[in-house]
Amino acid sequence: MNHPELIVKARKVISDILYITIATCDRSGQPWNSPVYSAFDNEYNFYWASWKENQHSKNIADNERVFVVIYDSTVPEGTGSGVYMRGIARQLEVKDLIEIIKSLKLLYSRKSKKTRKPEEFLGFLPRRIYKFIPEQVWINSEGDIKGNFIDARIDITADILKK
After folding, report:
1. How far is 44 from 49, CA to CA, in rounded Å?
2. Which CATH number covers residue 96?
3. Residue 142, Cβ neighbours under 10 Å: how many?
């Protein structure tokens, strides 16, 4: 379904908000939620740097299925927009060196800081670069059922992931 105004809204939230919230589960199914500073590429793949021993990092190693939310909480109550994404996440490794370099440029240019070297995220050092690939994307949309406000979700997967 084509919702051009919602696509514009979703892209604005994604570009304006620096943190994504990642929902993961451990081996026993216990949920974990983590906000992380992130950047994204032209295909709306998201990247972040995390300590490999953080709970969300360990959970991703065990279960690549994650849920990500980006919510604009900078606006008055009842006016915020959220982008909700289901997909897969993984730790980038030495074989992904070109992608690690790309992700570091994206991350550090977003902060207006000097890009770090990829070696700082490999080998014995503690932090790694992670990648999230969305498979399904929604944005919130308000509605009304018999005079009651509802916060609905509109699937915008096909439209937002188009180039």
Report:
1. 17
2. 2.30.110.10
3. 10
Q: How far is Cα 150 from Cα 147, in angstroms, rounded to an integer? A: 9
Residue 97 neighbours by CB under 8 Å, 6+ apart:
118
Q: Which amino acid is present at 6?
A: L
38 closest CA partner among 59, 60, 14, 56: 14
pLDDT higher than 90, residue 46: yes
Domain with 145 in it: 4-160
Count of domains in the chain? Answer: 1
Residue type, position 51, single letter? W
At 151 the pLDDT is 77
Helices (H), 23-152: 55-62, 97-110
Percent of the chain with pLDDT over 70: 97
d(CA 104, CA 137): 24
Q: Is 160 exposed, middle or buried (0-12, 13-18, 19+ CB in 10 A)?
A: buried
Residues whose CB falls within 8 Å of the CB of residue 98, separated by 6 or more in sequence, listed in order? none
Closest CA to 160 of 89, 103, 84, 68: 84
- In the numeric block, the tokens 């070109």 are attached to 98
Show the tokens assigned to 87: 């997909």
pLDDT top residue among 79 and 37: 37
